[in-house]
Amino acid sequence: MASLSRPSTSYSTTSTSYQYGYTDSNSYSLPPRGRRPSTSRPSTGRRSRESSILGGESQHIICAVSEGRGVSPTVGLALVNISTGEAVLSQICDNQFYVKTLHKLQVFEPTQILIVSTSGPPNPKSKMYQIVEENILGARIITVDRRYWSETSGIEYIQQLAFKEDLEAIKVAIGGNYFSVCCFCAALKYIDMSLSLTFAFHSLRVKYQPSEDSMMIDLATIQSLELIQNLQNAKSKDCLFGLMNETLTPMGSRLLRSNILQPSTQSNLLAARYDALAEFSENEDMFLQTRQGWSNTVIVVCFRRRKNSIRLHADAQSYLLPYFVPY
């Protein structure tokens, strides 16, 4: 495990800016390099299950969003789930109302959304910024200096952090998807500098998710059909997700939720799932042994803190403890 290189920080910031160029409406300053950080812990932007629009489980997800110019904007997204050690990249040809972008954000429910600093305060808010701010109420929007949206650094991150066996497939998938790669870079820079977390080499499950290979279900339909949350009782498991969720890991639960909200339309992927289901149905012993094996497996810790302090050790425990508790 090794820390990644950090960009130069020799530039001034205003009183409402983060030390490394991050700003939001509830801004606070990161401690200068070499000084022990305060023991008071700032808000991480995590939300409770009750506060979630779609009833998602509390996980720490950083999302970076960037767009190109044009009447029909091209929007890049990168979502890094710190809780499960996975990252999803996507690039969407959206309309002027950013319907597909909003749907993607509602499905993943990020805790923090990063946007290029020129698109938000103190500059005039861009149209995308305003629409995201109005519709994604549970997330905190943070503006990040444009220097951190680098395609070159994003590709380097992928080469360093993605599973070795997935590298070639990812490189092919991200070819020409400039905005999503830049977003991936911005998300990881923020995690490194603001949260003081670095991922170990080849420990992050990175995948590219094209928008055209899945169905889009609007929020009103998701709620009325009770796909994720019961209308009468938000804590009840009497919904499609609650009835189906027999998963044993946070990543499995997240994958099930994602597939309910945006079902795949890829015939080869669906056929492979049906084949796996048929094999487990015909061999109950193998199915039970597989589940037992998963329930006794400790999830590998794939990130580390760059700094040592009482606050950071306590914060790390809040991330790690859920993975050492039997499911």
From TrEMBL:
UniProt GO cellular component terms: nucleus
InterPro entries: DNA_mismatch_repair_MutS_core, DNA_mismatch_repair_MutS_sf, DNA_mmatch_repair_MutS_con_dom, MutS, MutS_con_dom_sf
Gene3D superfamilies, per database record: 1.10.1420.10, MutS, connector domain
Segments of skewed composition (Low complexity): 1-32
Residue span, DNA mismatch repair protein MutS connector domain: 61-192
Biological-process GO terms, alphabetical: mismatch repair; reciprocal meiotic recombination
PANTHER family xref list: DNA MISMATCH REPAIR PROTEIN MUTS FAMILY MEMBER, MUTS PROTEIN HOMOLOG 4
Protein name (Swiss-Prot/TrEMBL): DNA mismatch repair protein MutS core domain-containing protein
